[in-house]
Amino acid sequence: MKYKKQFFIIIAIIFLIPILIICNAVYCSVHIDKTHYSIKTDKINTDLHFVFISDLHNKEFGKNNENLVEKIKQENPDFIAVGGDMVIRYFDDDSVMKELLTELSEIAPTYCILGNHERNLQDKLDFKADITSTGAVLLDNATIRFKKDGETVLIGGLTDYPYYEYDAPDYNNDNRYYWDEFKEESKQNFAILLHHQPEYIKDMVTDSDVDLVLCGHTHGGLIRIPFVGGLFAPNQGFFPTYDKGEFKFGGTTMIISSGLGISNPIPRINDCAEIAVIDVN
Questions:
Q1: Torsion angle in degrees (nearest 10) through CA of 71, 77, 83, 84
Q2: Are the C-beta atoms of residues 281 and 42 closer than 8 Å to each other?
């Protein structure tokens, strides 16, 4: 009788685990977490409170993303940063992105960069024109000076990693020149860099005074294993070092958002969509 009972318990557990995983995946497909971060600095004498989102991939949380918009609106942010991959490379349609950016731009100044999915569609869609039409600002190897209480904050957008092997030995490209310029400006200003992919950041920022880097791309590892972390991230492979959360490289903080949507059939498991809420003081 004892062994029979144990057998049924084991069978029940075997059947229960996939049910729990499915339920978790369904929950994570509709629920949005808010993750709060606090950054300390003596470069500015005012407080910043802003929101960072990334990797929407045409996902909609309610009609016209009304649920997502409401969660962001509740924060009353100074500005909103958008980390790229708002579209999916397989569909040359950015209407979901444009509808969301229009709503966000009415809440606060909204600054965007391009991700790899946008870059894959640049021959089919004019992202600069489309983003500008929403009231948002595209930072494509460009910097804006955000003003608050008489203080200036640099917000820059680096299109892509500047030092690919095919550019060696001169690394003669727009990304490299923009990065050099942004590093120089960051010596005298609190500097926030938007860059879609996080796996290069440690090597990039070691000789810089950039204060904060905001990234996406990883989807949080997509499937998060308790006490382990993300299972897989593009460009990093299985069990990525930089999957989501906060990382420190000397004086630079990197924050990776797990994003909002998915770009492949694999569902989010133990990895809900995320809004990063960031305070600088």
A1: 60
A2: no
- Residue 67 CA to residue 60 CA, distance in Å, equals 9
User: Of the candidates 51, 102, 103, which has an alpha carbon nearest to the alpha carbon of residue 72?
Assistant: 51
226 contacts 206 by C-beta, under 8 angstroms: no
Q: Is 11 exposed, middle or buried (0-12, 13-18, 19+ CB in 10 A)?
A: exposed
- Long-range CB pairs of 19-23 (<8 Å, 24+ gap) are 21/269
Segment 131-143, tens digit of pLDDT: 999 999 999 999 9
pLDDT tens-digit profile of 155-181? 999 988 777 666 666 778 888 899 999
Phi and psi at residue 72, to the nearest 5°: -70, -40
| 252-256/245-249 β-pairing | antiparallel
